[in-house]
Design a protein that fits this description.
Shape: globular
Strand order of the largest sheet: 1-2-10-7-8-9
Order of helices and strands: HEEHHEHEHEHEHEHEHHEHHEH
Strand content: 15-25%
Radius of gyration: 18 Å
Structural class: alpha/beta
Number of helices: 13
Helix content: 40-55%
Number of strands: 10
CATH architecture of the largest domain: 3-Layer(aba) Sandwich
């Protein structure tokens, strides 16, 4: 099947998506991270407060709602480290549609349990197998309508609704930072922002162990990250940037900031201490990047993309070892 041509997200599509998903998602708040005058002014966009504790519900709800009746009858399936799987499973359950998730076998137990509770059929596979399936858009033995977890125009338009909320709640925004995994989040938010307030800078954030987007923007073409390493930042940082996603990101991303795992852990700890926010590793990338100062003094909107992390693991990560 021929893929849809990559094209810019239009404002009317974002507005329509907003209406379409309004009954499913939460309009999440912005919360100032009180750090003192020597730090950038950071405001947290708390997508960890969505019903699935992650932003992916926006895109999934829009994509599933836009499927034809024939496509729904076939059931839906997706590929995920957990958050996209939860989003599609949640939207599918609400629509009365069967859902299968090809899930990375190292996904946190909290994400696995949530997908099962939402009625999804899970197929656990190694990371490399899942990444290959995302590229090929197929997986042996899994049937139904495929909903890509990031390279999907309607999915991205759903994420773009977050950009509208940010601009309404913080018109003085100077910069926005979002973690990059597949690139759907930053493409969506960046699309809305560049349509309405193009002077706002949009930054991607990746962990040092998985930073193909930073390399791709530096090289001017989509790149692989051969030295990729698994880490607790399981919801961001891919092994490569898909060419189609690089094409989508290029017009709406101004720069990329790579942070260390220690900086990411520190950001998780700061959010817990200062704002009582529980963030997963991927959700803390934006705050870690903001704290480097590379995105300016602010106001910076740091998108806390999710909070799906096992509490035992969270405590191990944020409590310094003796």
């Amino acid at each position: 099947m021929a893929l849809e041509t990559v094209r810019p997200i239009e404002l009317v599509e974002i507005m329509q998506a907003r209406e379409r998903i309004a009954g499913t998602i939460v309009r999440t708040p912005l919360l100032r991270l009180e750090m003192g005058p020597e730090y950038p002014e950071i405001r947290l966009k708390l997508e960890n407060l969505q019903p699935i504790n992650a932003y992916k519900l926006r895109g999934a709800a829009n994509a599933v709602a836009m499927l034809s009746e024939t496509e729904r009858q076939r059931g839906v399936w997706t590929i995920s480290a957990g958050n996209a799987g939860q989003g599609v499973a949640y939207a599918a359950k609400k629509a009365g549609v069967p859902c299968t998730v090809v899930v990375i076998e190292t996904a946190p137990a909290s994400k696995i349990e949530r997908m099962q509770a939402l009625g999804a059929t899970l197929v656990k596979v190694p990371y490399d197998v899942a990444w290959k399936a995302m590229e090929e858009r197929s997986f042996p033995g899994v049937a139904g309508t495929f909903v890509h977890p990031f390279d999907d125009h309607n999915f991205i338009a759903g994420h773009a609704t977050m950009g509208l909320e940010i601009l309404e709640d913080a018109p003085d925004t100077a910069a926005i930072i979002a973690g990059i995994g597949g690139g759907g989040l930053i493409t969506g938010v960046g699309s809305a922002v560049k349509l309405l307030k193009p002077d706002i800078t949009v930054w991607g954030a990746e962990p040092e162990t998985a930073a193909p987007a930073a390399r791709s923007f530096a090289m001017g073409s989509p790149q692989a990250f051969q030295e990729w390493q698994a880490s607790f930042v399981d919801g961001a940082g891919g092994k490569s940037v898909f060419p189609r996603m690089f094409e989508r990101m290029k017009p709406v991303v101004d720069g990329n900031i790579v942070v260390s795992l220690e900086e990411t852990r520190n950001a998780m700890r700061l959010m817990a201490e200062k704002a009582r926010v529980i963030s997963e590793g991927a959700g803390a990338l934006s705050v870690a990047a903001a704290l480097t100062g590379k995105a300016g003094h602010g106001p910076i909107i740091a998108i806390v993309s999710g909070g799906n992390i096992d509490l035992k693991k969270f405590c191990e990560l944020i409590v310094p070892s003796a």
